Amino acid sequence: MSVVKWDVPKAARSRPVFKPTLRRLRYFVLGREVDKGFIFKLLLYLILISTSYIYLNPILKMMTRMLMDAKDLIDPTVTWIPSSLYFGHLSSAWDILQYAKSLSISVGVSLTTAALHCVTCGLAGYALARLDVPFKKLAFFLLLLAFIIPQQVIVLPTILLFRTLGLDGSLFTLILPAMFGFGVKGSLFVFIFRQFFMTQPKELEEAARLDGASAIRFYVKVMLPLSKPAILVVFLFSLVWTWNDTYLPRMFLASAADVPLATQLTRMDTMLNTFIESGGYPEYVAEPIKMAASFLTILPPLLIYLFTQRYFVESVERTGLVE
Fold first, then answer.
1. Are 288 and 272 in contact (CB under 8 A)?
2. End-to-end CA gap in the chain
3. Measured between alpha carbons, how far is 56 from 234 in angstroms, rounded to an integer?
4. 169-188 confidence digits (pLDDT tens)
5. pLDDT by residue (tens digit) across 114-159?
6. The model's pTM
7. What span, in angstroms and rounded, lies between the C-alpha atoms of 18 and 6?
8. Do 245 and 177 meet the contact criterion of CB atoms below 8 Å apart?
9. 97, 261 in Cβ contact below 8 A?
């Protein structure tokens, strides 16, 4: 079977008759007409729905299991839709987590850490981006080095330092690193602020110098109001990162009774096993109680993201992170 090749001579390609045809073909293939069709939109929605289901499936499964009563839990035919809504597992998880106290600790530590990161990392990022300070390149190299080194490498010296300062088991150990932009989080946030301040026009700084403004005054009066997108990104990153962190609280608060919510969740297995062995709970309710505890832990960050999603996406686009 012979294949007929359609070959257009070069002379024909340069003709005015062929050029509009090629332009219309390119106009159609590149998507300017394809994206108006029903099939294209159907495929697009199928991809988006499938991707969303991958991410939402664990949360939906969690919510379903924690609302099942004992009859649905032992019934293998009940998978997604419970016969009735049962909130006893949520109540049990609330009591085991000591939710009110743990939630207040998590909120206090996370908000304080996020605010300190915005202040200290903002000043450091401005200095690295706009000021001519000695050993500036060395400081930036050490900043990148601090971001590369994992926190597991420096956790033991940090524990010994806190023990020397008399802060062993104190919640202040989770806040103190943010005061100096210490660790992986601090280096990342300094880099975010530096990238944002480097995108601002230098004419603003030159005009401020002509008016006799100092660097600190220029930062407070001009650069700080302009850096609202970067502040929002750093604040949310720090808030969620501190909220979900379990490694450092386990290292610094190993023997403490008052711990954040995520750390209390990691201690839940021991508490549940104790209750089950003492006859307080049957063994098959351990899973839904864990599901309920996980849902209570992630609920505040989900609510924050729900109300700040649009502002967060806009801020990320304006900080220079997508360049």
1. no
2. 52
3. 25
4. 888 889 998 888 888 888 88
5. 999 999 999 988 888 888 888 888 888 888 888 888 888 888 888 8
6. 0.77
7. 14
8. no
9. yes
